Amino acid sequence: MAIKETFTLHGENLLKKIKELIAEGNIRKITIADKSGKELVSFPLTIGVVGALLAPVFAAIGALAALIGECSITVEREETKPGNDGEPKE
Questions:
Q1: pLDDT tens digits, residue range 11-24?
Q2: Potential cystine with 76: which of 8, 29, 60, 85 (Cβ 3.0-4.6 Å)?
Q3: What is the mean pLDDT of the chain?
Q4: Dist CA 66 CA 75 (whole Å)
Q5: For residue 78, which of 3, 20, 18 has the smallest C-alpha distance?
Q6: Residue 14 class from Cβ within 10 Å (0-12 exposed, 13-18 middle, 19+ buried)?
Q7: If we measure between CA atoms, which residue out of 23, 39, 38, 21 comes closest to residue 75?
Q8: What is the spatial distance between Cα 60 and Cα 30, in angstroms, rounded to a whole number?
Q9: What is the chain's alpha carbon radius of gyration, rounded to the nearest angstrom?
Q10: Any bridge partners for residue 71, and if so which?
Q11: CA-CA distance, 61 to 59, in Å (whole number)?
């Protein structure tokens, strides 16, 4: 199951916020929509995606940020279960 979270911000902060979200590491998918709710771009983030593979995505987001004013980012996160911290059981 995934948890969705939405952020509203201006275009100039778009790339910075997306980089922060990706650094958190538990993101499955990011969707960017304009202020009317129309989806502009959506991209999945799979485990193991590294900086070199994200460079084209960052370039597209940078171009998009220059063109739009207010937008929203919807983030789909992996749901973490209580007590399931990834540590092996003894």
A1: 888 888 988 888 88
A2: 29
A3: 80
A4: 21
A5: 3
A6: buried
A7: 21
A8: 13
A9: 15
A10: 9, 34
A11: 5
